[in-house]
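User: I'm writing a tutorial on reading structure tokens. Could you give me a worked example: one chain, its sequence, then its tokens, then a sentence or two explaining what the tokens reveal?
Assistant: Sure. Here is the example chain.
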Amino acid sequence: MRKPLVPVLLAVLGVLVVAGCNSENLVPYFARVDSSEECGVAPLPVQFAARASGGDDLDAFTGANAYLDIFWDFRDGDTANGSLVYHTFDTPGHYDVMVTVSDKDGEGETVYLPVEVLADSLTVVTAPDGNGAEPDTTVASGQSLPFTVFASACDFQAETDDAGYELRFVFTWLMDDVAQSVYRVRSPSHAFALADTGLRHVVLTILDPQRSLTRRDTVTVLVTP
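And here are its predicted structure tokens:
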């Protein structure tokens, strides 16, 4: 009469062992999270995918989970649910896309995926800031005025030294002075002569041979006697 108890006890012990092995998975977690794009030009369509496991509905024998919620916050006002979602970013900016997996008890994990959305495939900003104001800066004749440019693209971030720029781009600065001065470096310094007194429009042309792109920016300089 005692023999049938043996299989029952073994079965119970087996359940406890399996359940114990899976106790660390009672909180849902992401096995994989990725995106089709990390950087691009607006409007930028991106596919997001997430694979999650664990949770308090985990079956001790199969490892299956009856319910996990995967929630996406694209950080631009839009959200979505599901393991595979699509979203288009219309506005340039940096977005730390948040994805959360949770079970019926609200326990889970949150991770972030960075997405950089640019307004242009190559953005150029000069210093002094050529923002269209007249003048952008004022300098006395004979005084040295430094110029420089910052460029940003998905495959090129604004660096602080000339080395990366000089290897990547070709520069042409037209100083709009009486001497018709031209510079072909990233950061020239120029002293306007007394004969240059008045408003000068310094034009920068930057060429990216790798992508066959050309961008221009203008800095207006008021030269005083």
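What the tokens reveal: The chain has a mean pLDDT of 85. The CA atoms of residues 153 and 176 lie 29 Å apart.
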